[in-house]
């Protein structure tokens, strides 16, 4: 009997937790574990620990499968990472940092950087192939108009997977930055000016109050 200690961490952003059921499967070089339930209640910023019992040693853990399903209402879950400690004390880390929505299974590789030539196991080669196919499907391109740069083949950002959409935190930062800039231009007379500027130096005075400051993550020159 081999016992693996598993810790599953939920992201700390708003609504990252879930009331849906989450289970996990460990995949090693010598085999894989049975699907083991982690919990049905996850809170933002919290961790869940459990033991996964296997009939034999799985060898080095190369990836994990996170399974999400629901009984009634859908409740998306943001998984931060998963840590697995083998019976011999070896710690494996699986960075996830993505939303799981609906009834789904997500495969996460062990968090050591590897190239295609490093994938000796067939299961890792197949995982890389599926991941590439999913990326190609998610990032399909189209021509917006003749002579314009190509863009994503969607009509709205809402059609994109939630893990691709622009984060609400970054959107809030940009919105705050635009409000600040608008107020600054208004106070400096830019928005209400009815006559032309006499020189470039006069125009530069509009931005003198914010020159060189780091506002909302953007450097204003």
UniProtKB/TrEMBL annotation:
Keyword Mitochondrion tagged: no
Tagged with keyword Cytoplasm: yes
Any GO molecular function: isomerase activity
Cell location: Cytoplasm
PLAT domain: residues covered: 2-114
Pfam families: PLAT
GO CC annotations on file: cytoplasm
SMART domains linked to this entry: LH2
Chain positions of site Essential for stabilizing binding to COTL1: 99
Domain Lipoxygenase: 114-221
GO terms (BP aspect): lipid oxidation
Positions annotated to bind Ca(2+): 17, 75-76
Primary residence: cytoplasm
Keywords on record: Calcium, Cytoplasm, Dioxygenase, Isomerase, Lipid metabolism, Metal-binding, Oxidoreductase
Pathway where this protein functions: Lipid metabolism
Family under the similarity heading: Belongs to the lipoxygenase family.
Name of this chain's protein: LOXE3 isomerase
Source organism (scientific name): Rhagologus leucostigma
Gene name in the database record: Aloxe3_0
């Amino acid at each position: 009997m081999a016992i693996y200690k598993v810790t599953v961490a939920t992201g700390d952003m708003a609504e990252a937790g879930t009331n849906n059921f989450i289970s996990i499967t460990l995949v090693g070089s010598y085999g894989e574990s049975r699907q083991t339930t982690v919990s049905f209640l996850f809170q933002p910023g919290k961790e869940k620990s459990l033991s996964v019992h296997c009939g034999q040693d799985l060898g080095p853990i190369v990836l994990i499968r996170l399974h999400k399903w629901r009984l009634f209402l859908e409740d998306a879950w943001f998984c931060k990472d998963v840590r697995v400690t083998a019976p011999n004390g070896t710690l494996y880390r699986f960075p996830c940092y993505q939303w799981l929505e609906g009834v789904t299974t997500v495969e996460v590789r062990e968090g050591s950087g590897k190239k295609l030539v490093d994938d000796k196991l067939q299961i890792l080669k197949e995982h890389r192939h599926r991941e590439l196919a999913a990326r190609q499907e998610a990032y399909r391109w189209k021509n917006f108009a003749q002579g314009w740069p190509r863009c994503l083949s969607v009509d709205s950002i809402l059609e994109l997977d939630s893990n691709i959409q622009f984060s609400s935190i970054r959107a809030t930062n940009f919105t705050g930055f635009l409000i600040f800039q608008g107020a600054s231009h208004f106070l400096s007379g830019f928005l209400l000016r009815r006559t032309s500027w006499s020189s470039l130096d006069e125009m530069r005075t509009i931005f003198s109050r914010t020159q060189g400051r780091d506002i909302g993550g953007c450097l204003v020159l």
